[in-house]
Amino acid sequence: MKTGKFITFEGVEGSGKTLQLSRLEAELKKRGVRFLTTREPGGTEFGLEVRKILLHRDGPLREPTAELLLYLADRFQHLKQVVEPGLASGCHVFSDRYHHATLAYQGHARGLGFPVIDRLAEALELPMPDLTVIFDLDVEIALKRARARDAGEAEVWGRFESEELDFHRRVREGYRLLSAREPWRVLLLDASGSPDEIFQELLGVLKERAILD
Ligand code: TMP
Question: For helices 165-181 and 139-149, what crossing angle results, to 10°?
């Protein structure tokens, strides 16, 4: 059986990627496409536990490298339990975040650099996505949206959302560097338009890449 394609969605918090993924889900169902959607961190039971450690705002002290290794632990379990079996069964797998999030957040924004993350991914034989769509948006607009969305919940879980603006600017910059570094895989999508406009653009990209008819 033909394996499916592996597509990842990326962006700063509040960039609209999760909303677009849920719209895409409805569209793919309508078209009868075989697919599954998932996310990192937290795409497995193990990952949900790891997510709690990573994202609790008042959680324990987490060294950047310790944080990096937890994201990788989540990823490895997710890959073996969800992504690889999904692809092998012929489904397209759409993941809300993956490797490029680690490069942008831990590599660029936290300052660990891209090379160590690339080397670890290589050592763990992590497959790279067929396509990574980055929802690119001004961070001030994006964070306003994220904070409005998470009002209440963010008190406990919005660890990254509570980082200063400069951190999020570096995340965005990291993503932009990645789209220049891997233009064949990483596509920057302007996420400043209306949800309908962004969705049409997303469908266009998926058609161009022969993921949709
Ligand atoms: P989410 O809000 O999209 O569910 O993502 C959870 C948070 O984890 C978000 O702030 C981005 C962050 N993150 C990293 O810092 N590194 C990673 O490798 C991943 C997957 C997420």
Answer: 120
The three-state secondary structure class of 66 is helix
213 beta partners: none
- Whole-number Å distance, alpha carbon 41 to ligand 1 midpoint, is 6
Domains of the chain, first to last: 6-208 (3.40.50.300)
What is the residue-level pLDDT of the chain in tens, covering all 213 positions? 689 999 999 999 999 999 999 999 999 999 999 999 999 999 999 999 999 999 988 888 989 999 999 999 999 999 999 999 999 999 999 999 999 999 999 999 999 999 999 999 999 999 999 999 999 999 999 999 888 887 766 556 667 766 789 999 999 999 999 999 999 999 999 999 999 999 999 999 999 999 999
Which residues are near ligand 1 (CB < 6 Å)?
13, 40-41, 55, 71, 96-97, 101-102, 105-106, 160
The predicted model scores a pTM of 0.95
| CA triple 6-161-171, angle to 5 deg | 55
From the CA of 51, how far away is ligand 1's center (Å)?
9
Closest atom of ligand 1 to 17 CA is: 3
